[in-house]
Amino acid sequence: MDEQDRKTALRMIPYGLYVMTAEGKGEAPAAATVNWVTQTSFSPPLIAVGVKTDSGVYAAARSAGHFVLNILGKGQQGAAFTFFKPAELEDGKLSGEAITWAQNGAPILKSAPAAIECQLVEVVERGDHHTFIGEVTNVHIHKHPEGRADEAVLEMKELGEKVFYGG
Q1: Adjacent-strand bridge partners of 46
Q2: pLDDT digits over 125-138, tens only?
């Protein structure tokens, strides 16, 4: 397989940007920007999230058995960049972002247009990112989108190609 063709083909898959949050048992909250997300089932409602195995949010979500997927909206590049590094809880904010708490105990970013609470039902352990399968247990809409809901999501291409692909 031609390496450049492989990269080009995989880059054709559209990616939104999200902040996954969790708080493990007896641990500080964790958060990370993620972009490999898809809905996998209507009944029950399931989503799949690719999570880097050495991230704090990976350990926290596995420990807690649940997580929140905060959906970033257009113009939230700053929040996406913020959670490329480990999160810190200080003065009631997570890395400077105002939060509230989900019913499952994970942080919800108040600035995110929407957030999805999930119960972790399975982890597929393959590759450098494992796939977390989460059953949707609750949703929070902070800002209803104008027009199509999928057009309100911050997309990876809005951060610039070098951020994720290294040029």
Answers
A1: 41, 135
A2: 999 999 999 999 99
Instruction: Please state the three-class secondary structure of the chain as a single string.
Output: CCHHHHHHHHHCCCCECEEEEEECCCCCEEEEEECCEEEEECCCCEEEEEEECCCHHHHHHHHHCEEEEEECECCCHHHHHHCCCCCCEECCEECCEEEEECCCCCEEECCCCEEEEEEEEEEECCCCEEEEEEEEEEEEECCCCCCCHHHHECEHHHCCHHHHHCC
Name the pairing type of β-strands 89-90 and 46-52.
unpaired
pLDDT in tens, 93-127: 999 999 999 999 999 999 999 999 999 999 999 99
- Among 79, 92, 85, smallest CA distance to 142 is for 79
Look up the pTM and report it: 0.91
